[in-house]
TrEMBL record:
Pfam families for this protein: Cyclase
UniProt cross-references to SUPFAM superfamilies, sorted A to Z: Putative cyclase
UniProt protein name: Cyclase family protein
Protein species of origin: Streptomyces spiramenti
Transmembrane regions listed in the UniProt entry: none
Amino acid sequence: MSHVSTATDTGLWSAYRQLTVGAVHTDLTHAFHPGQPHFPALPDEQRESVFDLARGDGFTVDRYTLVGQWGTHVDPPSHFHQGAATLDRIPVEEMFLPLVVLDISARVATDPDATPTLDDVADWEDRHGAIPAGSFVALRTGWSSRWPDQQAMVNRDPAGVSHTPGWSAEVLRHLLETVGVTAVGHEQLDTDPGIATSAGDFSLESYVLGRGRWQIELLANLDRVPEAGALVVASWPKPRGGSGFPARVFALHREP
């Protein structure tokens, strides 16, 4: 007699139950809205109710006018490099990855200009083993606690210089060239620290995207996710030739 599959043994459903039963789903995404923190050169979001149940229409439909780099968003390589991969060319296989959280929040609490070092990476690997190739590495700085206060997010001194944490060249080179991670993410507005962006220097973001990687900016709730052992799902719409778009990102993990 041929085997008749049931709902309990069909495809990946059994693996899905094993993966999700008892697991925690942590949203790593800010809900976007007009007036939220954003790169100063970009326009604010605008919304218009095209149809509205409150007005007696049969349904509600809103029109959103916003730039691609809005709220928690994805930057594909084409954001900085002409002819590089656009959003629709990032394969879905890259949207479900092991999540590594590199935590420098304690240092940022006393030094907003802090950036990660290779010692931070070595300490992480001492605790958890080697960072896996193909992973998503998120830089935890604690900066998302400042959302949605624009002034607190950019943190400018009286001279107009922004003091925010960011990545470092040595850590990004190690992650992208030695480890071979698929993507990176962070809580602040930019890849580069505020002192650099205040001088018009976005070289670290250019480097990440120039290596054919993508990144997520303005992540939230990294303090609720373990340093190792979680999985991340990052997804976004698929505009043809898209150079950026708001993303929905969440982590799947076990309680400590």
